[in-house]
């Protein structure tokens, strides 16, 4: 995992002043919106797949009519008196959230908030028997691609409310766990509840956690390696720019935090360059990429992939974001979100030692390597949507 640091030290080269690889704000603005999902209130369990989603404003409280069917019994304590005001002021709910354990491999990003998340790449909902952050984390760990979870307490109706027969039934209290395939932030805690006829669904004790353990290794690449910021690479020893550009993938139901998307971009860039070489037959090879979550005003927007012709050490991870007018575009503070995954150069201290057939040509390094071009295998990697310009609301899906 530390082979890039060893390699960089062995080179012993002096480089020109770094050239900033600024976030392409125009490209980000031109892309489609990120998709933020509102999990359903009227189910005890839900998969992440969406059928014919309804689009609705983020802050709206919804009304629907039901059948008075008995709902599954809740496991949490019911407030007394059984009113929305008593639910919101019940200290027992806050105590559960405040005293909840932070699972190993996760960092807490909000605690005891009166709203649940509206975030990207929704992976499903599960009603638990208790306020169990460890159990919710276990569900996230078992779900491929899960990057975050939200544990909260919900005031729900004991009957499916009907305007004529049961408009405001007695309440039950549920412990709910939602899973997300992209990093989340406290700024996304916007779902405070909804009307179901005369019954008011409410949220309390909402905690959210991001996964801090690195994602799985990628075939033919070393890493991932944790960085404190995005890479800002200098010119190489020959005075050449090693930055090959970027690809941006907005978060949606089919695009979460998946560095293998960036690996596919890197491989595709090399394949394109090989098909369009210079006059002397040479072409640039993508040898290294930096994958991170791009946030707008602290709200995660999408996966940003920066590509390079050579490997750069963690000391060059000095890009911490930039402003677009009054808006702040940043990689998030969690260090595992800034990941460098260099292509394997030698089978030394690597997670997946590469075969020679996996290594690139035309490496701009003073090492005695004579590898063959990388294998290109089909990768089924989802591409999606993106954030809008300032003042325009993102797309919201209400389930």
Your description of this structure?
This protein is of the alpha+beta class. The protein is 14% helix and 27% strand. The chain has six helices and 19 strands. It has helices at 3-11, 25-30, 84-88, 91-98, 133-142, 259-275, and strands spanning 35-38, 45-47, 54-55, 106-113, 116-117, 122-128, 148-157, 171-180, 189-191, 193-196, 199-211, 225-226, 243-250, 288-296, 299-308, 322-324, 327-330, 339-340, 395-398. Strands 2, 4, 6, 7, 8, 10 and 11 form a seven-stranded antiparallel beta sheet that branches. Strands 12, 13, 14, 15, 16, 17 and 18 form a seven-stranded antiparallel beta sheet that branches. The longest helix is centred in the last third of the chain and has 17 residues, at 259-275. The chain starts with a helix and ends with a strand.
Quick structural overview:
This protein is α+β, with helices and mostly antiparallel strands and 399 residues long. It is 14% helix and 27% strand. The two termini are 41 Å apart.
